[in-house]
Amino acid sequence: MDRRTVWAILLMMAIAVAPAILMKKPVAPEARGGEAGTPRREIAVPSDSPPTSSPAVRDSIPASRPDRDSARAAPSPTTGLSADDTVLVTSPLYRYGISTRGARLVVATLPRYRSMASGDSGRSAQILPPGNRLLGLTLVLGRDTIPLADWPFQASAKSLSVSRPTPLRLSSTRNGITVELIYTFFPDDYRFDVAGRVAGVGPNGGLVLVDMGPTLANTEADSNENHRSLALVTKHEDTERLDFGGLERGESKTVSGPLEWAAIKSKYFVTGVLSFDSTGGGISGVTATGLPGPAKETTHANIRLSLPLPSSGSFGFTVYTGPMEQDRLRRIGHSFDDVNPYGWPGFRTVIRPLAAGVRWLLVWMHEHLNLAYGVVLIIFGILVRILLWPLNQKAMRANMQLQAVQPLMKEIQEKYKNDPQKVQQEMFKLYKEHGVNPFGGCWPMLLPMPVLFALFFVFQNTIELRGTSFLWLPDLSRPDPLYIIPVVMGLSMWGLSKVGQIGMEPNPQMKMMLYVMPVMMTFLFLNFASGLNLYYAVSNIASIPQQWLLARERQKRTAKAIVEVKTRTPERPVKRAKRKA
Description:
Layout: H1 3-22, E1 37-38, H2 55-60, H3 68-73, E2 86-90, E3 95-99, E4 105-114, E5 124-126, E6 137-141, E7 144-147, E8 154-155, E9 159-161, E10 166-174, E11 177-185, E12 191-199, E13 206-212, H4 223-228, E14 231-235, E15 239-243, E16 252-259, E17 261-265, E18 269-274, E19 283-291, E20 300-309, E21 314-323, H5 326-332, H6 348-368, H7 373-404, H8 406-415, H9 420-434, H10 443-446, H11 449-461, H12 484-500, H13 508-525, H14 530-568, H15 571-580
Parallel strand pairs: 2-9
Antiparallel strand pairs: 1-17, 2-3, 3-4, 4-5, 6-7, 6-13, 8-10, 10-11, 11-12, 12-21, 13-20, 14-15, 14-17, 16-19, 17-18, 18-21, 19-20
Helix pairs in contact: 6-7, 6-11, 7-14, 8-9, 11-14, 12-13, 12-14
């Protein structure tokens, strides 16, 4: 490769990774936040049956009267909870808190995940910040707008321990309007169903407005990175993302429906409202308004979605509040796993399938082979090089052919140095005559790049790798605090290049790239995930034996090819002279 080709490759790499570096805007450390997003769906429920958000719940819960099963599921029934009480709902996966003032979700603690935010001391991750308005309801009936935020709701239980589908009933009446809600929780899922009925809606129906936000709590050691991930994600025909950072304070943006779901996401966690109503009801639209906060970048937004309220007064939707576990999100369907996209716009179509495959393989090896993720990355790095061995072999041999005709290339450049067009024509003739691909030698550098980019997004987005330690590395998804792995990666790149130049004719360009590229990549990777550096270092080291074997072959073949070319060189001008004659 000539110098321009090498610099073109480096420029492409820089363009690909630059957004991860340049988009790092300073955010005040005290600002804790997440991303935005909230969708909803409406489920039509006949007026003579209880409101619910899924057929399963409709079939299992009778109208608006307590039954024996719900009494057994709620062992501490009460109708006298104060407006400031919180009903705690617990299962092995979560600990949710429902406030009896406004029936909002005010607590979402996930015991399987630890908060890494400064000052949290490794406590279970609580993804809802104080003062959040998640599931705050407002009724729009004719010209009347009725917020339910301060309505006192009577709850059917003081607490729930969920070992099977378990309903929680809440009801409130004010000014002749009665609102009944049923939250149905499941022991093995972060989803729960919300079904509601409003008495006295009238023949013209109305709207139910559902609040989401204003943000998610920071749960990560790098609060800046977590804040940059905050976004409102919605799904109509395609997934649409609105970053909180791109929303000016006081600015409002609307996403028109009907929408299947809407969600607020941070780096690893998400709260979403899902409404898969095939009748065309669903979420009518979502409005996001930037709110002032302690940071320069917007980290808070007033998110409100609207649901049509039919004359029957029944509505329903499903809520997901938990981690962005890719397999769990995919099982929900309706492209809900797109809430956690891999890749930047423009790169996503190519990178996403590869990143999803890499993530699946890493998780599978960890869970089924009982290997630490650090060991998995080492095996994966070696495996990738073994799979790419034949392609690398072909590419490196193409580079040998290019090196063999270097003397002829120099002759052409000197002979036609004042005629660039002639140089180009003669070069193409030379390549064709000797069967040389001038870009064949670039493959050894380009082949591992898609896997490397895919791994970059895997470490940026995969919650299974969050907080996993290996040797001295406290977290494979975070940079190496001692910078050992980036230095090893740079040295391995230098060693690979050094071995690859054995048997080549030394020139200033090659000597420059021998040092420039490893140094550049080392500084570039200093703040990247240590797991990514570990993979790249192992991949480089695993490539050295192949480079060494090919270097020995090159020494033999290059010498032989040069001799053959020199013996043929005098014939070339004679043949061309005859053709001209």
